[in-house]
Amino acid sequence: MVLRIVLGTVYTAMGVAQLASFGDMPRILSAYGLVTDSAATALAVALIAGELVCGIWFLARPRSKALAPVWVYSAVSVVWTVLAVQAYMRGLAVANCGCFGIYLTQRLSWFVLLQDALTLLYAAVLFRSARTAPTRAGREEVRGGAGIR
After folding, report:
1. What is the rounded distance in angstroms from the CA atom of residue 131 to the CA atom of residue 91?
2. Distance between CA atoms of residues 144 and 138, nearest Å
């Protein structure tokens, strides 16, 4: 639950900051060398929407074991990681990673790659906790005695 609140806070803040600097997001994403123009704008829309959806969901329902926000969080994390790793490997100088739009800027470095790796690790933890949580039907079986032989 605590992890969901922390991640919800971070991803909601990222989405809000990127939305507030939406006019700059296509340029920021273009610096990664994979997308430009309308594709960069579409990617910005998708990332912002994903961050806001999973961030708000994690904050509104931190005890939820639903997989939908975990999938959205994971997809956003994978996209940011792919952007960062390929740009870093190609030696591109990305002055602003764009995680918070034009706010809290940081250049692409090994530290950003570490942050991205942590988001992927957190995704694995979220998937594991969602899979190991007892289902509603399983809880009712145990309560009703149907699961005891």
Report:
1. 39
2. 10
Angle made by CA atoms 81, 86, 90, in degrees to the nearest 5: 150
Backbone angles phi, psi at 32, to 5 degrees: -75, -10
Nearest one of 14, 26, 15, 42 to 106, comparing CA atoms: 14
Rounded to an integer, what is the distance from CA 40 to the centroid of its chain?
18
The model's pTM: 0.85
d(CA 24, CA 18): 8
Angle at 64 between CA 58 and CA 65, to 5 degrees: 110
**Are 115 and 10 a contacting pair, CB within 8 Å?**
no
The answer on pLDDT for 142 being more than 70 is no
**DSSP string spanning the chain?**
-HHHHHHHHHHHHHHHHHHHTGGGHHHHHHTTSS--HHHHHHHHHHHHHHHHHHHHHHHH-TT---SHHHHHHHHHHHHHHHHHHHHHHTT---S---TTTTSS---SSHHHHHHHHHHHHHHHHHHHHHHHSPPHHHHHHHHHTTT--
Among 63-72, 84-93, 106-115, where is mean pLDDT lowest? Answer: 63-72
Structure tokens at 118: 């942590």
